[in-house]
C-alpha cells in the first residue's frame, strides 16, 4: 500500500489557515472574558448558555479516548456523523473531478452529501446476501477515487461485513476507507478502531444517535490517524457541537457501562419480534440483523406499509431499493410499540388477505 495523505487531499486544503476562535487563543477556563462579544449577563431564561462552547470538546474526547483505547487527538466530533461525511467530501474530493465508491444498498447520506458537493458516485452493489465484492470494488477504483464507504453493520440490511474483506480493501486501496459503525454497539464484533494503527487510510465513524439514545443532540464521532483528524478539525465550523450537547454527552459517558443493559434489552426485543413476525403468512424473509432494526421481505410490502401508516405506525419503506425489493425496515421499539405493530399486522392479515 502506498497511502499519501497529502496527495489524497484537495490541493488547497493544506494551505488553509483555520479560523482562530477567541477560545483557541486562551484555553483557560477562568478569567475575565471580554474577547468574544458574548452577553455577560446570561440568557433570558437565567441559564448559562451565554458563553461559546469548547471548540474541540476536550472533556468528551478524554473520556471517549479512555473507553475506546485511542488518543484524544485521534477523535473528531461532528454535528452528527452527517457532518463528518460532508467534511470528508470537502477535504478529499474536488467537485466535478473526483469520485467516491458506494456499496448499495447502504446509508443514504453518503450519496446525498456527494451530490451536494458535486462529487461523482461509483456504485458496486453488495452480493445477494449483502456482503462486499472486494475484487469488483477494487476494480472500480480509478485515479480519481478518493473514498470508499463501507457500512458495517449495514443499514438497511443489518448484517456485518466480512472483516477480512474489509482488510483487503484497506490494504489494496490507496484512498480513504470509511467504516461506518453507527450500529456497532448492537453487534458482537470488535470495532475497527482496534485496527487504526495498522491502516493509515482507515476512518471509523460511530454515533451517539443509536445505542446511546441521543439522536436529538446531533453528535457523531470519527476515529482516524492524528493527521486525518487534524484536517477535519481544520475545516469544521469552529463551534460545531453546542455546550448543551457536550454536557449531556458527558453525563451519558459517566454511565457508559449501562449501555450493555440497553443493548441486551434491544436484543431481546429483536428475538421476540423475529419470532412473531415469522408467523405471518405474508412475511417471506427476515434478514439476520446485528443492529437495532430488522429488514423484512414480504408480499406486497408497499401495501403493508400503507396499511400501517393509516394505523399511524411508520416503518421505513425500502421496497424500491436495489437488492431490497419488497422489503420494509423495522426499527426495534419498546415491547408496547412492538406489540402495537404486531396487532396491526394481525388486523392486516385477517382483513386484507
Ligand atoms: C443513523 C446512522 C448514522 C447516524 O447519523 P448521525 O448524523 O450521527 O445521527 C450514520 N450512519 C448510518 C449508517 C446510520 O444508519
TrEMBL record:
Q: Do the record's keywords include Chaperone? A: no
EC id: 2.6.1.9
Q: In which pathway does it act?
A: Amino-acid biosynthesis; L-histidine biosynthesis; L-histidine from 5-phospho-alpha-D-ribose 1-diphosphate: step 7/9
The record's Gene Ontology biological-process terms are:
L-histidine biosynthetic process
Q: Cofactor(s) for this protein?
A: pyridoxal 5'-phosphate
Please identify the protein, giving its name as recorded.
Histidinol-phosphate aminotransferase
N6-(pyridoxal phosphate)lysine modified-residue sites: 210
Pfam families in alphabetical order: Aminotran_1_2
Amino acid at each position: 500500500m502506498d497511502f499519501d495523505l497529502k496527495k489524497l487531499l484537495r490541493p488547497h486544503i493544506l494551505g488553509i489557515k483555520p479560523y482562530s476562535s477567541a477560545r483557541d487563543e486562551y484555553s483557560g477556563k477562568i478569567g475575565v472574558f471580554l474577547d468574544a462579544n458574548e452577553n455577560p449577563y446570561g440568557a433570558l431564561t437565567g441559564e448559562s448558555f451565554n458563553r461559546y462552547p469548547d471548540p474541540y470538546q476536550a472533556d468528551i474526547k478524554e473520556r471517549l479516548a479512555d473507553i475506546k483505547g485511542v488518543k484524544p487527538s485521534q477523535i473528531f466530533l461532528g454535528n452528527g456523523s452527517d457532518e463528518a461525511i460532508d467534511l470528508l467530501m470537502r477535504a478529499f474530493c474536488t467537485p466535478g473531478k473526483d469520485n467516491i465508491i458506494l456499496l448499495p444498498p447502504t446509508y443514504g447520506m453518503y450519496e446525498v452529501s456527494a451530490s451536494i458537493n458535486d462529487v461523482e458516485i461509483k456504485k458496486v452493489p453488495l452480493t445477494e446476501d449483502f456482503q462486499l465484492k472486494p475484487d469488483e470494488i477494487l476494480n472500480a477504483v480509478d485515479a480519481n477515487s478518493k473514498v470508499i464507504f463501507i457500512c458495517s453493520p449495514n443499514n438497511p440490511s443489518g448484517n456485518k461485513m466480512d472483516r477480512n474483506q474489509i482488510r483487503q480493501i484497506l490494504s489494496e486501496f490507496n484512498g480513504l476507507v470509511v467504516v461506518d459503525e453507527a450500529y456497532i454497539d448492537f453487534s458482537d464484533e470488535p470495532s475497527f478502531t482496534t485496527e487504526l494503527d495498522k491502516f493509515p487510510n482507515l476512518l471509523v465513524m460511530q454515533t451517539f444517535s443509536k445505542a446511546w439514545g441521543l439522536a436529538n443532540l446531533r453528535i457523531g464521532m470519527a476515529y482516524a490517524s492524528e493527521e486525518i483528524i487534524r484536517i477535519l478539525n481544520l475545516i469544521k465550523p469552529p463551534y460545531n457541537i453546542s455546550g448543551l450537547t457536550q454536557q449531556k454527552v458527558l453525563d451519558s459517558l459517566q454511565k457508559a457501562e449501562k449501555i450493555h443493559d440497553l443493548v441486551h434489552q434491544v436484543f431481546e426485543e429483536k428475538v421476540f419480534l423475529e419470532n412473531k413476525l415469522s408467523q405471518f403468512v405474508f412475511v417471506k424473509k427476515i434478514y439476520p440483523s446485528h443492529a437495532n432494526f430488522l429488514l423484512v421481505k414480504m408480499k406486497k410490502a408497499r401495501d403493508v406499509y400503507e396499511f400501517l401508516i393509516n394505523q399511524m405506525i411508520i416503518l421505513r419503506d425500502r421496497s424500491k431499493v436495489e437488492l431490497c425489493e419488497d422489503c420494509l425496515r423495522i426499527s426495534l421499539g419498546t415491547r408496547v410499540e412492538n406489540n402495537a405493530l404486531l396487532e396491526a399486522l394481525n388486523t392486516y392479515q385477517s382483513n386484507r388477505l
